[in-house]
Design goal:
Layout: E1 4-9, H1 16-29, E2 36-42, H2 47-53, E3 60-63, H3 80-85, E4 88-93, H4 96-101, H5 106-119, E5 122-127, H6 131-135, H7 139-154, E6 163-166, H8 180-197, H9 199-204, E7 206-210, H10 218-222, E8 229-232, H11 239-248
Parallel strand pairs: 1-2, 1-8, 2-3, 3-4, 4-5, 5-6, 6-7, 7-8
Helix pairs in contact: 1-11, 5-7, 7-8
The structure holds glyceraldehyde-3-phosphate (G3H).
């Protein structure tokens, strides 16, 4: 049986003060949550600070991005081995904001995915279609292409121990959520794709939904058969909302 994972993506938000308050509220409230894996993905600069605040907490730490390189003359980059040194368990790769704003291609996403696997971090591979893609009826082929980029280069075994997050671009930060049925259809499609290569890995892999998930819609989304958790943006910045989503799971 797959465990549920609720991961907060703080994006470019926070300060020492606000993170101290948020993590304090989360670590207090998390005792009421059971049978759910919970993680927060901090901005790089606050990773060590967040690590110290999470000491002895069941909440795992994650990062939002990683360099495809292990070391060297890559100004401004942060390597997977560095994230590991500060207890990051998870790291996002291929978030739509990085694909769209920073021009990250599938090739770059795959290289980052590989860099994380080398260091034993859990990549959270983000995939999803734009509104235009959905209107053209090509949602599944867009998502399959993004997942296949990793399988073609790294092999299906690399998906084992990784997480996939389906995030329709049109639902991110817009308040517009995919309906549970729309999300389930894509999640089932992703699982069917994995199953073509390896049934066990398909059954084991956690597939998260992301895109305006909040306390009001979380239960219905998380009740769907192939939705194994959430990647939460805006609502992860408010402890009450994030904890309510964890409880809904
Ligand atoms: O990584 C999180 C997603 O981009 C969802 O963000 P959101 O919950 O603010 O829509």
């Amino acid at each position: 049986m797959r465990r549920t994972l609720i991961a907060g993506n703080w994006k470019l938000n926070g300060s020492k003060d606000s993170i101290t308050k948020l993590v304090s509220e989360l670590t207090t409230g998390i005792s009421a949550v059971s049978n759910v894996d919970v993680a927060v993905c901090s901005p790089y600069i606050y990773v060590p600070f967040t690590e110290s605040l999470l000491t002895d907490s069941p909440i795992s730490l994650g990062a939002q991005d990683v360099s495809m390189h292990a070391s060297g003359a890559y100004t401004g980059e942060v390597a997977a081995v560095m994230l590991k040194e500060f207890s990051c368990k998870y790291c996002l790769v291929g978030h739509s904001e990085r694909r769209a704003i920073h021009g990250e291609s599938d090739d770059i996403v795959v290289s980052k995915f590989k860099a994380l696997k080398v260091e034993g971090l859990v990549p959270v591979l983000c995939v999803g279609e734009s509104l235009e893609d959905r209107d053209q009826g090509i949602t599944m082929s867009v998502v399959e292409k993004q997942v296949m980029a990793v399988i073609n280069e790294c092999g299906i075994d690399a998906i084992d121990g990784s997480v996939i997050a389906y995030e329709p671009v049109w639902a991110i930060g817009t308040g517009r959520t995919a309906s549970p049925e729309q999300a389930q259809e894509v999640h089932a499609g992703i699982r069917a794709l994995l199953e073509r290569f390896n049934k066990d890995i398909a059954v084991k892999t956690q597939i998260l939904y992301g895109g305006s998930m909040n306390p009001a819609n979380a239960s219905a989304l998380l009740a769907m058969q192939d939705i194994d958790g959430g990647l939460i943006g805006g609502a992860s910045l408010k402890a009450d909302d994030f904890l309510a989503i964890c409880q809904a799971a």
